[in-house]
Design goal:
230 residues, alpha/beta, Rossmann fold, 7 helices, 27% helix, P-loop_NTPase, Nuc-triphosphatase_THEP1, kinase, kinase activity, Nucleotide kinase
Amino acid sequence: MRETAPVFIITGEQGQCKTTFLYQVLGLMTGLDLRLRGVIAPGHVRDGRRSGFTLVDLATGRQEMLCSTDPSPGCEVHGRFCFRPEGLALGRRALSLQDTEETDLLVIDEVGRFELQGVVWAGQLDRLCTLPHPPMVWTVRRRLLDTVIERWSLEDPVVVDVGAAGVLSTASDVMDAIWEWRETHPVSPISPAPFINRHAAGDLPLMADAASGVGAGTPSIFRRRYTASD
């Protein structure tokens, strides 16, 4: 058993629904008493072009506008996007874990060219990758995949291509990694993450709206409830 758990990288081209795929994977885990941390960033489109992103803290359900193509006072400008201070602060708090062993899964949506330039979540990623961390799921554009892996010295990342991978098999692999992490690290009393709902994530489709009530036909990894006594 290794101290550092796998990093799963959901990848695809721009506009290929990486965040939707991620949301569906997380939806299968709803009701499993997981200590879920991190951020998910559903995008907005205006006139057929990406116009901004909302940021959702998975641990609290709180959301803020992360960035927009519309100028705003006090923003950090990166590329054509203006990053709002409230959104950046929310994300940096969500990714600044005081104790990585208090987390079952850490999600970062997404790691991209701004992080490679040393801004947005770069500082948090630098710290996380020097610690024994729990399983992580990142989303990364395909053209940046090799550069991101090299930049953060990721050893044997699990690459999940949305054009070929299945949501159920991906979620099962992530749950296996979580269970392995739990077997080798003490478990404190759980405060399960609320997980984002449809409204918080811009009405992204959930593959399973009631994962806590999965049936006998569901793989056993999902039928198990991960509790403080496990």
